[in-house]
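Bumping my old thread because nobody answered last time. Still need a sequence for this structure:
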């Protein structure tokens, strides 16, 4: 979604309970936590799927999580994660190539009829309350937004050409080895919040590849 898109977003109290909704810009400036989802995906080779942000977006030209987005008014965390994965990776918010599973065990055992070479599957891993996000604004400057972030971890073996990334949100997609992600972190090629995600969830994510 473009920065100009003024959809209604959930805003929350400190405990993570939705207390209302505001237009996007108002929500981010309100001082109340805004809801967001972050999805990290790894393939069977232990490579992490990352998206590169377009130059006219926040954190433009930097590599970021596999999928990310805001929780819309009245929307639940899980519904947002599924919708955003469909939109960003397959240009279809209702894509059948996206599957939410309850936990890592369900991901490991798989589900009948679901092929990871054609889709993505993930589970809710954690909820981070009160994350003071730091991001680079389009055209320069730094923005701070208070977020509650639902984090999801998962698997995919879709080859890069098998994705249909949402052109308005994603400049490129790529698979990267853990060593490459480490290097990108220390050289500033990652979006700032990817440092938090990588440091806190990389070990658990990479364990899904085995």
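Sorry it took so long. Here it is:
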């Amino acid at each position: 979604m473009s920065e100009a898109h003024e959809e209604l977003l959930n805003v929350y109290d400190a405990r993570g309970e939705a207390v209302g909704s505001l237009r996007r810009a108002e929500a981010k400036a309100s001082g109340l936590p805004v809801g967001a989802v972050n999805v990290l995906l790894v393939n069977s080779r232990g490579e992490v799927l990352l998206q590169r942000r377009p130059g006219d977006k926040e954190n433009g030209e930097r590599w970021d999580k596999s999928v990310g987005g805001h929780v819309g008014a009245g929307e639940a965390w899980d519904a947002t994660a599924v919708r955003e994965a469909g939109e960003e990776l397959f240009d279809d918010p209702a894509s059948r190539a996206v599957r939410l599973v309850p936990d890592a065990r369900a991901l490991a055992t798989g589900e009948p009829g679901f092929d990871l070479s054609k889709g993505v599957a993930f589970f809710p891993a954690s909820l981070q309350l009160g994350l003071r996000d730091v991001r680079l604004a389009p055209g320069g400057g730094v923005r701070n937004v208070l977020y509650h972030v639902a984090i999801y971890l998962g698997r995919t073996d879709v080859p890069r050409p098998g994705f249909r990334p949402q052109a308005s949100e994603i400049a490129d997609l790529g698979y990267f080895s853990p060593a490459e992600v480490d290097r990108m972190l220390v050289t500033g090629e990652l979006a700032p919040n990817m440092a938090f995600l990588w440091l806190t969830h990389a070990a658990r994510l990479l364990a899904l590849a085995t």
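The mean pLDDT is 94. Let me know if any region looks off to you.
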